[in-house]
Write a structure and sequence with these properties.
The complex is a heterodimer of chains A (195) and B (241). Helices cover 28% and strands 38% of the residues of chain A. Chain A is α+β, with helices and mostly antiparallel strands. Chain A has 2 domains: 68 residues, Nuclear Transport Factor 2, Chain: A; 98 residues, Nuclear Transport Factor 2, Chain: A (Roll). Classes of the chains: A alpha+beta (195), B mainly beta (241). At the A-B interface, helix 1, strand 1, strand 2, strand 8 and helix 5 of A face helix 2, strand 1, strand 2, strand 3 and strand 4 of B.
């Protein structure tokens, strides 16, 4: 190197970078695609009885406390996701919707909550979530019946600032728009496609 | 630990199939690219890079990059160390997906040194199966014995996980990029086109390793085209303070 002073300066900066590294532990969570033959049979039977007629992709999610299976498909132009527990028991079905498809009174309550809790925000994604008795959920989908017998909730993903940093939050609201819970979405590093 | 768990499951089969397919494409791409190396305007070399990104509060971050160029083939097979680039950039997120950065690069080439001011804005779009980044960048290169070079560039990069919808630790991914660099040096305009294919591995949520081929073509507007092929080995470390 022709300029040892410059080189030393850069090495010093690199050293500062490396030594200020935090050692925070992050939640161990993984999602990966699997073959249908690795999915519990009752989950396959449940999805089969939904008569989607579309390609089903299966995923397994492993966390510290929970293992779950998820079937994803695009049906009637909408992303459907059906979640099952480790033993293949039905948990819920989520369908991606546009925010303006949420009933107006419910949507008003949701936006009032978001404005009061987070100030400025933007909605990135909205889903309607159905859960309850698996047979009733199945019946609801087959016959397009009323949703009174099953529980429906709304999952909203927003971008907002939390403690000065841009963050994505996933919020769950009841059918009436009451806030149920919020959780932070882990945003993976994108340095390798930005620099 | 997880790789061991997965190796016992069929998930490994899907991963292997995807990785094999990608490697096949990748291995076919390299020899095909080397066919034209017989021409004198072609060059093959190594381009190892270290990239450290340190994140601070209020959406500020610093990016340090060290990259070295080493030629393997020019007229004939001969190893030749060419240069080293060292850069440092400060970045600020202006939205959940948008980052604005400004930095400085020093290029050490034998006894010569050149300096470059860099400004860039990047926007990352997250799709359900992959992530796409648009990068608009401008830079100005100054050196003692040459005119100032002004460049304006656009790059599109995609990161595609090969096992599942999101990239998790212990998983492979494919990275593709395409860049267009417009340069003006002493009133002479040139366009350089770059294309890259990399196979990557996420060692953890903060460390990624990539190996691939970067192709660069320039001087084709007015003159003899120059084709350069770089075997890239990239190491990315993200630090959360």
């Amino acid at each position: 190197m022709s300029d040892p002073v410059t080189m030393r300066g850069f090495l010093a900066i690199l050293l500062i970078f490396l030594t200020t590294q935090g050692f925070a532990q992050y939640k161990y969570e993984k999602e990966f695609r699997i073959h249908e033959n690795e999915v519990p049979e009752n989950a396959i039977l449940f999805v089969g009885s939904m008569d989607f007629g579309t390609k089903i992709k299966w995923y397994k999610e492993t966390g510290i406390e929970k293992i779950s299976y998820e079937a994803k498909t695009n049906y009637n132009g909408r992303r459907h996701s059906i979640e099952f527990s480790e033993d293949g028991s039905f948990e819920d079905i989520e369908i991606e919707i546009r925010p303006d498809e949420i009933p107006s009174e419910t949507f008003t309550r949701i936006t009032e909550y978001l404005a009061s809790a987070h100030g400025r925000y933007s909605i990135d994604k909205a889903q309607i979530q159905y859960s309850g008795d698996p047979a009733l959920v199945k019946e609801f989908f087959r016959n397009r019946g009323t949703a009174h017998a099953i529980e429906s909730r709304f999952e909203i993903v927003i971008s907002t600032r939390v403690e000065g940093n841009y963050t994505m939050l996933e919020l769950l609201f009841s059918e009436n728009g009451d806030h149920v819970r919020s959780s932070k979405v882990i945003i993976r590093s994108t340095d390798n496609i930005e620099y | 630990m997880f790789a061991v768990q997965r190796s016992s499951s069929g998930a490994q089969t899907i991963l292997n199939t995807d990785v094999k397919r990608t490697l096949l494409f990748f291995l076919l791409f390299i020899p095909a690219s080397l066919v034209s190396l017989a021409q004198s305007s072609c060059q093959l070399g190594l381009l190892p890079a270290l990239n450290v990104n340190s994140k601070f509060s209020n959406d500020w971050s610093m990016n340090f990059k060290a990259e070295s160029r080493q030629a393997l083939i020019r007229d004939d097979f001969r190893y030749d160390y060419l240069l080293t680039d060292l850069s440092l950039a400060a970045a600020k997120k202006t939205g959940i997906n948008t980052t604005v950065a400004a930095g400085y690069l020093v290029r050490v080439e034998g006894e010569e040194m050149s300096h470059r001011a860099i400004q860039q804005v990047s926007r990352v779009k997250r799709y359900s199966n992959f992530r796409l980044a648009h990068r608009l960048s401008a830079d100005q290169t100054f050196s003692k014995d040459d005119y100032t070079e002004f460049r304006f560039r656009y790059r599109l990069s995609a990161e595609i996980p090969l096992a599942g919808q999101s990239l998790d630790p212990g998983e492979f991914f494919l990275k593709l990029n395409n860049e267009y660099l417009n340069s003006i040096l002493h009133k002479v305009y040139d366009l350089e086109i770059r294309g890259g294919t990399f196979i990557g591995y996420a060692l953890s949520s903060d460390i990624k390793l990539e190996l691939g081929m970067d192709y660069r073509a320039d001087s084709f507007i007015d003159g003899n085209p120059r084709h350069r092929y770089w075997i890239g080995l990239n190491f990315y470390q993200s630090i959360r303070n």
